[in-house]
Design goal:
The chain is an alpha/beta fold. It has one domain: Aldolase class I (TIM Barrel, Alpha-Beta Barrel), CATH 3.20.20. The protein is about 50% helix and about 15% strand. It is built from ten helices and eight strands. The strands form two sheets. The protein has a five-stranded parallel β-sheet, sandwiched between helices. α2 packs parallel to α10 and α3 runs parallel beside α4. The longest helix is centred in the last third of the chain and has 22 residues. The two termini are about 30 Å apart.
Length: about 220
């Protein structure tokens, strides 16, 4: 089931996490994405730079536990969008203000649109994005998130880029709706011979900290 934009926003805000799987092996990426879902992540994106990414998305959708959302990342072109939609992607993520945004919105897919500057954030919302992926977040850190939310209090920002588990709380405290860990979470697990057990341990840590933050914030 594809969530409405409102459901997507509420779900991501509640989860506080969107995992990013970007690998060099389609089979390893599939295993990594499924393991993250098993460890409690509710939103996982598979980057289009992963070999056979559409096949990975389809495989993860087929075996995913109920109630989770499997998306596609680095969706830049209309053809990318058509490919991942056919594979069953339930949301798309872009690294920039890509051509795919308008069409995804028209097709009813929630969009997490990549942006960095205030002008980018405004343009992304004008194009109909459900949420804005602030990328790369490490350039400005939590203080930049807080500064952007002053003129854009209605925007739901997701911090992506270099967000390790120890940095996540700072972004949440600054007002980020969620964080999108990639390599700090997945490590080498999406590559052939990668350490899946180590990734599972990191995943449990992220999920635990997100739950703790939600409890204390509430």
């Amino acid at each position: 089931m594809i969530q409405t934009p409102q459901e997507f926003i509420a779900g991501v805000r509640a989860a506080k996490l969107v995992a990013i799987v970007r690998g060099t092996s389609s089979s390893a990426a599939t295993a990594a994405a499924l393991a993250l879902l098993e460890e409690g992540f509710r939103y996982v994106e598979v980057a289009m730079t992963t070999p056979q990414a559409a096949d990975v998305i389809a495989a993860v959708r087929a075996d995913a536990p109920p109630g989770v959302q499997v998306g596609a990342g680095t969706v830049l072109s209309i053809q990318d969008l058509k490919d991942v939609e056919a594979a069953g992607a339930q949301f798309i993520v872009t690294p920039a203000l890509a051509d795919s945004i308008h069409e995804a919105v028209r097709r009813g897919l929630p969009v997490l649109a990549g942006a960095l500057t205030p002008s980018d954030v405004h343009e992304g919302m004008q194009r109909g994005a459900s949420m804005i992926k602030l990328f790369p977040a490490f350039i400005g850190g939590p203080r930049y998130i807080k500064a952007l939310l002053d003129p854009f209090p209605q925007v739901h920002l997701v911090a992506v880029g270099g967000v390790g588990v120890d940095e996540a709380v700072g972004y949440w405290d600054a007002g980020a709706a969620a964080v999108g860990p990639g390599s700090p979470l997945v490590g080498d697990a999406a590559s052939s011979g990668g350490d899946l057990d180590a990734m599972r341990s990191r995943a449990r840590d992220y999920v635990r900290r997100a739950a703790n933050h939600a409890r204390h914030a509430g």
